[in-house]
Write a structure and sequence with these properties.
Layout: E1 13-18, E2 21-23, E3 26-34, E4 40-47, E5 50-54, E6 57-62, E7 66-76, E8 82-93, E9 100-102, E10 112-117, E11 127-131, E12 147-149, E13 154-164, E14 167-177
Parallel strand pairs: 2-8
Antiparallel strand pairs: 1-3, 3-6, 4-5, 4-7, 7-8, 9-10, 10-12, 11-13, 13-14
């Protein structure tokens, strides 16, 4: 009995999609980086499951904030195999203005300070990142309105980053905690 041989094809390389997020308008580069081009019939980019574009490389500009899906497929010339990549998620945001205050201007040592978020369009903000003592590089807090118990005096740089689909805005304010 003779041994039967068969071929299993897997493409070498991958498509490049970059960047994945940013502020509108954002241009996303789509590049076919396949190393086995001689065996590939065609490459097709698909945008949100429709509007196929047959090309190796292109770009797509998004002007409206939202979440989009891009996929890429290639087909082997001889075998007819179809290989799919993605979907890749593209997040397009609109810059929101970060802003905050504290609940009281009279803060004593060992008090808990409450930070009140005053950023614009809070319903559109997907992520809040606070550093409540920037000089010490303490870990970020991801609450909308965090609290911090300060056990020492001095200047405290507080940073708030608000993010809408990869479109950030940053505000850093200095607080002075004094011991009377």
């Amino acid at each position: 009995m003779a041994l039967q041989k068969f071929e299993i094809w897997r493409p070498k390389g991958y498509p490049l999609v970059a960047p994945y997020s940013g502020c509108a308008p954002i241009t996303v580069k789509l590049v076919d980086q396949m190393f086995s081009r001689d065996s590939i019939t065609v490459g097709t980019w698909l945008f949100d499951g429709k509007n196929p574009l047959v090309t190796r490389s292109t770009s797509k500009t998004y002007t409206i904030p939202g979440t989009y899906k891009i996929s890429y497929s290639i087909k082997h010339k001889r075998l007819g195999c179809l290989y799919k990549y993605g979907p890749f998620t593209i997040e397009v945001g609109k810059k929101q203005k970060s802003n905050f205050t504290i609940d009281t201007m009279k803060v004593c040592l060992n008090d808990t300070v409450k930070f009140i978020n005053l950023s614009t369009d809070t319903n559109k903000i997907k992520k809040y990142s606070w550093n409540l003592d920037w000089a010490k590089r303490i870990p970020f807090v991801y609450d909308k309105n965090p609290q911090k118990h300060y056990t020492d005096t001095g200047y405290k740089s507080v940073m708030l980053i608000v993010d809408n689909n990869g479109c950030p805005d940053t505000l850093i304010l200095d607080l002075s905690l004094i011991h009377i």
